[in-house]
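[step 3/7] fold_predict: job queued, chain A
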Amino acid sequence: MPNVAMYNMSGESVGTIDLSDAVFGQEVNKVAVHEVIKNYLANQRQGTQSTKTRTEVSGGGKKPWRQKGTGRARQGSTRAPQWMGGGVALGPKPRSYRYSINKKLKAVALKSALSSKVEESTIVVVDKIELPEIKTKAIAQMIANLPVEGNALIVTADNDSSVYRSARNIEGVSTTFVGQMNVYELVKYEYMVVTKDAIAKIEEVYAR
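[step 4/7] structure written:
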């Protein structure tokens, strides 16, 4: 059972916390992590790129020259793809890049990402994050106090607007909560700063 140190917002050690083997002690499945991240990025694509075909470009209704007798190749419209200003042949059109993957695969990938944080000692547990007011300086000072040496993802148990609004202007820091936590963000950010309550909720949801 993994055991990691727990800190307060001032960076002082306030004991340790045992993490569930079922969530934080799994063998890292890199293939599952890759597949889930690929799916996440594909689902984020808007798919709004579009080009005009020869039927959608304005003009070109008149035949450029007569069919025969000029010595030139026959042409029916100046909006054909080979003409400058013409339509695009086989260009992209709006489409959806979304596809679904198995829920079990997502769970394996998430547990793998969490377990890798424990293996690499890049998970930092804080007993609680309390902000009397929305203040960027408070979150920035907390990150500075904690053993965090790179960009960080702050994970809370529930959606906390105070934490989000206080951290949103800090470069290299992002926030999420257990209900929206995803593999892509866990891999993207070097450190995971997670509250004690969030740990309990993660284990409750995923230790099945």
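[step 5/7] annotate
The radius of gyration is 27 Å.
The helical segments are 21-24, 30-44, 103-119, 136-145, 161-167, 183-188, 196-206.
exit 0
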